[in-house]
Write a structure and sequence with these properties.
Epsilon_tubulin, Tubulin, cytoplasm, cytoskeleton, nucleotide-binding, 8 strands
Length: 399
């Protein structure tokens, strides 16, 4: 909501990407306070937001879904971002709501981020169709790995001088958090996710098919994403991975966009979205190869959804985005709850929230209960992990 931040974008290299008539700002932001974003800005700007949404929706031939891209730790992303979810649900009940949520790392610089994140989580539980949680720390780790590969020269990479990953002196940018590069990873995720809607392919996947196939229970709509190859910008020429290696990478913990290890957790379902010159037989071969090392719930042993888009990302021969509905997301939520409880037990910073009209202490207890119930659902699934898979008899049809 901060005017200065949006103006900075409008004067930067991305200014042509945005329609300036569709932007909404206030003078100041939400001051890292979910209640300001949700209760104050939400009601103040609801009509204005709706008007601009309707205007955009009118231009669509086939409106499939809304993407909400927000951070969980601050005030506007968490507060106004989740207020928007409810507005979309009321106004466009048939249109899927996909949310890309950036979760704060343990070392983030917003003291109230555990409060903001837990209050936002309750809204995500109730009003989102699909949430792609992304962890700031994972993005930072991925960028560090790419930096290491580029610097060691192992991959024979070439970097343009004065690219976003080099400083003006031509030396490699280190130390400061490379937000451009971190955001670029998320942009690659969204580009892969929407590729079927934008390009031809032998096996297209609509966005609404993701929710239909990967979300067996309404609450368990958190999908862990992994990308391969990992690269930040088209001007970092990382040589292509072999196709089979790319599939293996997608299931390794180094390629996940949250700190998680899906291989040692339970899958409810998994989608593989492939771009480039890849055949359906390549997909099937790799799924069969990987299946023995992955644990799927007993009632959905064939829980794979696949898509093939013939156009690869710029500068690459092929790429893969894996979306997994997997219990490995649980530790992220447990860690968040622990950080929340540390503050909440002392009632620290609570008065900043309670002075906002419509905000009561019950908002915090309800949000914590909502998250605990979600964690419990994952616990129950994990408890079935070692159960034997029933070999159900095939349906026999009398001729």
């Amino acid at each position: 909501m901060e005017e200065g931040v949006v103006n900075e974008i409008l004067q930067g290299p991305l200014r042509d990407v945005f329609d300036s008539k569709q932007l909404i700002t206030d003078i100041s932001g939400s001051g890292n306070n979910w209640a300001v974003g949700h209760k104050v800005f939400g009601s103040r700007y609801q009509e204005q937001i709706l008007e601009k949404l309707r205007k955009s929706a009118e231009h669509c031939d086939s409106l499939q879904c809304f993407f909400i891209i927000h951070s969980m730790g601050g005030g506007t992303g968490s507060g106004l971002g989740t207020y928007l979810l409810k507005v979309l649900e009321d106004e466009f009940p048939e249109v899927y709501r996909f949310v890309t949520s950036i979760y704060p790392s343990g070392e983030d610089d917003v003291i109230t981020s555990p409060y903001n994140s837990i209050l936002a989580m309750k809204e995500l539980n109730e009003h989102a169709d699909c949430v792609l949680p992304i962890d700031n720390q994972s993005l930072f780790d991925i960028i560090s790995k790419i930096d290491l590969m580029v610097n060691s020269g192992k991959l024979g990479t070439t970097i343009k001088p004065k690219s976003l990953v080099t400083s003006s002196a031509g030396t490699f940018k280190k130390r400061q958090k490379p937000f451009d590069a971190m955001n670029n990873i998320v942009a690659n995720l969204l580009l892969n996710l929407t590729s079927s809607a934008r390009f031809e392919g032998s096996l297209n996947m609509d966005l609404n098919e993701i929710s239909m196939n990967l979300v067996p229970f309404p609450q368990l709509h958190y999908l862990v994403s992994s990308l391969t190859p990992l690269y930040t910008l088209a001007d970092v020429n990382i040589p292509p991975r072999r196709l089979d290696q790319m599939f293996s990478d997608a299931f390794s913990k180094d390629h996940q966009l949250i700190r998680a290890d899906p291989k040692h957790s339970l899958y409810l379902a998994c989608a593989l979205m492939v771009r480039g010159n890849v055949q359906i037989s390549d997909l099937r071969r790799n799924i069969e190869r990987l299946k023995p090392s992955l644990q799927f719930v007993s009632w959905n042993q064939e829980g794979w959804k696949t898509s093939l888009c013939s156009v690869p990302p710029v500068g690459h021969s092929h790429s893969l985005l894996a979306l997994a509905n997997n219990t490995c997301v649980k530790p992220t939520f447990m860690e968040l709850r622990e950080r929340f409880m540390r503050l909440y037990k002392k009632k620290a910073h609570l008065h900043h929230y309670l002075q906002i009209e419509g905000m009561e202490e019950s908002c915090f207890t309800e949000a914590e209960s909502s998250l605990s119930a979600l964690i419990q659902e994952y616990n129950q699934l994990d408890a079935t992990k070692s159960m034997p898979v029933e070999d159900l008899p095939r349906l026999s049809i009398a001729v």
